Amino acid sequence: MRRHDKPHRIIAGAMHYFRIHPDQWQDRIERLVSMGVNTLDTYVAWNFHQPAKGIAPDFDGPRDLTRFIRLAGEAGLDVIVRPGPYICAEWDNGGFPAWVTADPRMVLRSSDPLFIAAVESWFDVLIPVLAPLQWIHGGPIVALQVENEYGSYGDDARYLRWNRKALLDRGITEMLFTADGGTDYFLDGGSLPEVWAAATLGSRGEEADATWKRRRPGEPFFTVEFWNGWFDHWGEDHHTRDAQDASAEVKKILDLSGSVCLYMAHGGTNFGLTAGANHDGVIQPTVTSYDSDAPIGEDGSLGEKYHAMREIFFQAQGRDLTPVPDHLQEQVPVLDEQCFEMAQGVSLLDFVRAGEAVVSVKPLSFEELGLDRGLVHYQASAVLPRGGGFLKIGGLHDRAYVWIGGRYVGVLHDGNARDGIAVPGDGNLETLEILVENQGRINYGPFLGQGKGILEGVFVNQRLVFHWEQRVVNLERPLTQLLAATGNCGFGDVGSHAGGPGQSAAVPGFFHGQFHVSTPADTHLALPGFGKGVVWINGFLLGRFWDIGPQVTLYIPSPLLVVGTNIVTVLDYEGGGTYGQLRNKPDLGIVGVSHVEDLS
């Protein structure tokens, strides 16, 4: 590859603005620069900018894409932008807004006119944001990606060519490229002869380079995603990758005169309900942390992998290895460790029963109810068989908490919902209540865009239950509004203490606690004794937690804290604890085997 008629290689790191608090963008970019890269790579998440139909895309505050790109440019970095519209990225719905994928007539990621029209309306807004930031106009953007790993999904070359033309027609003049796995199979479906082809892989780069020399002679080899770490699903061990192993694989690519981008260089956090999910027989929801064992940790810490990659990057560019700047080597300030009491508030059932009911004969899906993420409370009456029976749910996505006559009877999920759960009965009419949780929309594979909620029906043995009331629980509404809907806005009489573990609370629902801060700094929140749910910090929806792990602590960046009293609010679907903890380092769970063997 040549630039300004001189040899040039892209040495890049992926970093997503939507996974970093905007007050920390500058810091994370500085750490990236110090690692020795010359380029920053980022996806653009459509649903982050336009979550609801009929509203203008938002590019302000944490969504100020222009500011993020300019900060990278001011730091001396080129920028690669990957606008999708599909991004995967372990991000909810692969970046698609749920209101787009809800249309059952639409064929996603294809030349279907319905899909093309939806993407065109988005590109008509997004691309004019990006075009002035191109290198030709004095900006840092030097390349943009056409779609994303399409060879893993489909074979509609007409759609890929439309995607390329859509960028060109809207003023993109910089390099365009596709990205696919490092084998013939993926190239067959995802590449175009007229567009530079890049690779995504985590090992066997030499084999991929040989494939490119055979299939794409004369093209510079670029691994646009080198998986130097991996993400976690709830219920798994925490994935890591040895620093020396990862850096040695990168060196092989660079020694072949290839270009490389670390995915991720800094992972960040799936704040709120933005974590996606995979599917392998059952749903596999992704955890809140997107640390990904990256060289720059979720909290900005610089690990062994950072220094190993840095040494290789400097060497590949013929640069003398200089020390990391002192202010970046210093330990990131953290709050002192402490415990604080959590007091019980509104119960889960009282909370989810408080909304306005939507009536239907059959249960309605999240999409039919106009809900993207959160919960739906379903209620109906049914005659339960004498001697009991089984309550079954057809098409459950994803997890259901079940009550009969106000008595909790258990949990169903997409793996056991058709088998059902045993329920008591005496031949009389009983009230059924089912609370369904969306655990994250699928971000990869053929189930992309799959609906949430109860998609088929509810059965007592083989008999369908009809006439339902549904109440939408949009957890992304302001917390004050959520609490006000229950008639209880207070946080209770809570304070700090230094006690140890307490007994789990019997009733799931809201819990409130507080801690005092004299100087805001990062911290890591643990919730011993709590089960499964979501947590807010000062009204900001921090993310999901689940006691099955692997993630134990949730990262709280310092900009979310204030001098004085800080409020922790927990909604637990399964129970609750009596205290919370602030810890001075993360606990992302038991470390499992390296994921390297599955990366290509």
Automatic annotation (TrEMBL):
Broad enzyme group: hydrolase
Keywords, alphabetical: Glycosidase, Hydrolase
Gene3D superfamilies reported in the protein's UniProt record: Galactose-binding domain-like (2.60.120.260), Glycosidases (3.20.20.80)
UniProt domain Beta-galactosidase 1-like first all-beta: residue ranges: 363-470
Catalytic activity entry: Hydrolysis of terminal non-reducing beta-D-galactose residues in beta-D-galactosides
Enzyme Commission number(s) from the entry: 3.2.1.23
GO function term, MF aspect, one: beta-galactosidase activity
Boundaries of every Beta-galactosidase galactose-binding domain copy: 508-566
Residue ranges of domain Glycoside hydrolase 35 catalytic in the record: 4-313
Family classification: Belongs to the glycosyl hydrolase 35 family.
Protein name per the record: Beta-galactosidase
Organism for this UniProt entry: Arthrobacter cryoconiti
